[in-house]
Every structure is written in C-alpha cells, then in structure tokens.
Design goal:
By secondary structure, this protein is an alpha+beta fold. The protein contains ten helices and seven strands. It has two domains: 343 residues, Up-down Bundle (Outer membrane efflux proteins (OEP)); 62 residues, no CATH class.
C-alpha cells in the first residue's frame, strides 16, 4: 500500500470519527425537544378544567414565554457540553505544518563536523494523531458524569415549566374571581345607595336621624374603596398575565366568566409516597447522587497510569521538489505512559472532597424526601379545608336566600319595610362574595397540590 492510499484512508477515518461523534454518540443524549416539553406541561390535566380559554392561553405561554425559551437554550448548551466530553474519548487528528528557511549565516558546527556558511530549508507536512487509551474507563465515566449533569438541568427545567404554567393558571383564576367580585361589589354599592335613599325618605317623615344618614354614607365610601382596590388588583393581574404570555400586542386578557366555570376537583384522601417520585427535586437529587458517585470513581482512577498513543504521518523534506518523494516520507508510532509520582497530595484531597460531597448529597436526599412529604401534605390539607369551607359558604348562601324570601313575604304582610329588604340583599351579596372567593380558592388549592406533586395529577384514593 503506497503512502497516498494511507493518507486517503486516514482522511476517511477522520471524517467517519467526526460524523460518529456528532450523530452516533448524540443518540445517547436525552433531548428535550418540543414534544417532550409539551408533555411536561401536562395538557391532559389542564383539559379537565373544561376551559378552552385557559387551555389556549397555556399553549400560548408555552410558545411565547421568554423565560421558557431561555431555559430551553440552557438545555441545548448543556447537551453540547456532553458532546464535548464525548469528543474527548475519540482520537485527535490534526495537521501541524512547518516551513522554515535558515538564510546564509556563520559556520554550523556538529561536533568536529563543520558546515561553512550554513543555510537550509525545511518542509514538514505531517498529520499528527494522539489517542488516550481509556484502559480504566476514566474518560467514559467523565462523559457519564456530564450526562448526569444534563439530567439534573433537565429536572430544573421541568420544575420551571411546572411553576410557570401553574402560576399562570393561578393568576388566571384569580382574575376570573376579581371580575366577578367587581360585579358583585357594584351591586352592593347600588344596594347601599337604595338603603341611603330609604333613610333619607324616613328622615323627611321624622323617623330617622342624621346619624343614620352619616352611617350609610360611610358604608358607601367603604364599598367604593373596596371597589377601587379590586380594580387595582384586576389591572395588576392582567399585567402579570401579559408578561407570562410575552406578547406586547395583547390589550385584553381573554378569560372565562365565573358563571361558566365547570370544574370540581377530585380530592384524594391521602398522598401515597410513590406519587412523590415524579417531583423534579426528587429526581434531580437522585441524578446528583449518581453524578457524585461517578466523580468519586473518577478521582480514584486518577491515581492510575495513563497511556497515550502518538503517531505522525506525512512528509519531511529539505528541498521543495522532494516534498512528496519516497525519501521524504515521515512515519512514526509510539505509546507514551505517564504517571504522577508526587503532586503534593492534590489528587488525594480531590478524592476526599468528592466523598464529602457524596455524604452531603445523601443528607440532601433525605431532606428533600421530608420536605416533599410536608409540602404535599400541607397542600392536600389546604385543599380539603378549602373544600369544607366552600360547603359552609354554599350553606350560608342558601340560608341567606331563604331569609331574603321570608323578608319578601313579611313585606307583603306589612311587617317589614324596604330597608329590611335591602339589608337582607346586602347579606346575600356578601355571602355571594364569600362563595365566589372560596370556589376559586378551591381550584387554586388543587393546582397547588398538582404543583407540589411535580406536575402530576393527584390520584383519587378509593
């Protein structure tokens, strides 16, 4: 086989190795593509809210939110870092050319041999190759450790996705609640104005005093203050939702009417520990334990000798017309063993540091288990409590309705007046406000439980 064929073969090997690194190895890397990210936000869960406006808005957040796009780029960056580690497992082939001309100068001495008026040209055109033999699997372990770092980062991204989408949904329902509360507040103000007018009418007949008028006017002022506060919260929520949507063209946030909410959460009796295994922090710390375990192995194998294959193939000529001649061929191959005899204890200290980190991560794992149990149990208790309060609020609202019905009957019999009627209407409207708040709070509590479970729908216990 002549030298030309050898060079061509090396070039083909180089192209193959490059393609293998970019395509073959990359198949082992878990990619967070758009379909994977869409699974993170759990569209089937949000469909159960029977709210197309909410669902479309969530998809819009997924597509447009700037923070989510930033997190996606961080994942892509981490994937490239893994590929860099993979490339370190492959041979390096490079070209290090050298062209030199020593012009006429003084005599050159080579021992007793003299070259008068020395001048010389040199043309060195080599392909160089070096490849560290991964006898102990240290480089493979480094790549595995980088993959674990990627998996940890993906769990951070998953937690961020769940947090962003859940926060958007919570603000969305708070805005729906505020819309309805503003409507009821306007009714309260109109009702209070009727009470004030009724007292003014009584004052004309001498059956009411000025203090009654002042008291009812003060109530109107308080109700107007509460209305302004609700409007401010409405504006703030709309602005926050616009940021989530990351679209400056939005003038109005679309949302469902409170009366069209059609969702009753299925409340589990308890949370099984197995349901916590999908939490991002739980899975991340598992990957972290595995990653630091690999770091310990890498630190141990760093004490062992390394073997590197070195090779050169090319031409070394001293005259330009002889560059590609047989006499100018340059071929060498060798193995370079290396072992650190003394490094001041650096490798030993690195090993001890990684062992300490491993022990700390085990404790972190135990802490996350306890924290996840507490968080989910707190969220479940809050959901149950809110549900019980909703039942009480509905009962109170129904009783106020019955009371209003009885007042109407008393008016027909002449044993009650319009002021009594307006007062009962006020009680009913206040009960309605309480019912609205509790109803939306129940939905928000359910979303918080979903978030605490790591973006997994709570399982209803039989």
């Amino acid at each position: 086989m002549n030298l030309r064929k050898i060079i061509i073969a090396i070039v083909y090997i180089f192209i193959f190795l490059f393609y293998f690194n970019e395509q073959g190895f990359s198949k082992n890397i878990k990619h967070n593509d758009s379909s994977t990210n869409l699974n993170i936000i759990n569209i089937p869960f949000w469909k159960k809210f029977n709210d197309e406006v909410l669902l479309n808005s969530i998809l819009m957040v997924y597509q447009n939110n700037n923070d989510l796009k930033i997190s996606q780029n961080k994942i892509k960056e981490a994937q490239r870092i893994v590929k860099i580690s993979l490339s370190n497992e492959l041979p390096y082939i490079g070209f290090d050319g050298y062209i030199n001309r020593a012009f006429h100068s003084s005599d050159e001495y080579k021992g007793d041999f003299i070259i008068p008026d020395y001048h010389q040209s040199r043309f060195l055109l080599p392909l160089t190759m070096n490849f560290e033999l991964d006898i102990w699997g240290q480089n493979r372990l480094k790549t595995k450790a980088k993959k674990k770092e990627l998996l940890m980062l993906e769990e951070d991204q998953r937690a961020f996705y769940i947090s962003i989408i859940s926060s958007f949904a919570i603000n969305y329902y708070n805005l729906v609640k505020i819309d309805k509360l503003i409507d009821v507040q306007n009714k309260l103000i109109n009702n209070q104005k009727q009470i004030l007018n009724a007292y003014k009418d009584k004052e004309e007949f001498g059956t009411a005093i000025q203090n009654d008028i002042i008291r009812e006017e003060k109530k109107i002022n308080i109700l107007n203050y509460e209305l302004n506060d609700l409007k401010e919260k409405q504006e703030v929520l709309q602005n926050q939702l616009k940021v989530y949507l990351s679209d400056r063209s939005f003038d109005k946030i679309n949302r469902i009417d409170f009366e069209n909410i059609n969702f009753d959460p299925k409340i589990p009796n308890k949370i099984e520990f197995s349901q916590l295994e999908q939490r991002p922090d739980y899975k991340k710390v598992q990957h972290k334990i595995e990653k630091i375990g690999l770091d310990v192995k890498i630190a141990k194998r760093d004490f062992l000798p390394k073997f590197t294959i070195l090779g050169t193939l090319g031409f070394n000529a001293y005259q330009f017309n002889n560059i590609f001649s047989k006499s100018s061929r340059l071929v060498n191959l060798g193995v370079m063993p290396s072992l650190d005899i003394f490094d001041g204890g650096r490798k030993f200290q690195i090993l001890k540091i990684n062992k300490y980190r491993y022990d700390s991560t085990i404790n972190e794992y135990e802490k996350i288990i306890l924290a996840s149990i507490q968080e989910t149990n707190d969220a479940l208790y809050n959901l149950k409590s809110t549900h019980e309060n909703l039942e009480l609020a509905l009962k109170r609202y129904n009783l106020d309705n019955e009371d209003l019905y009885l007042i109407n009957k008393k008016i027909n019999y002449g044993i009650a007046n319009n002021i009594d009627l307006f007062k009962k209407q006020e009680e009913l409207l206040l009960s309605e406000k309480h019912k609205i708040s509790i109803k939306v709070n129940e939905i928000i509590s359910y979303i918080n439980l979903y978030k605490a479970l790591g973006g997994v729908e709570p399982i209803e216990n039989l």
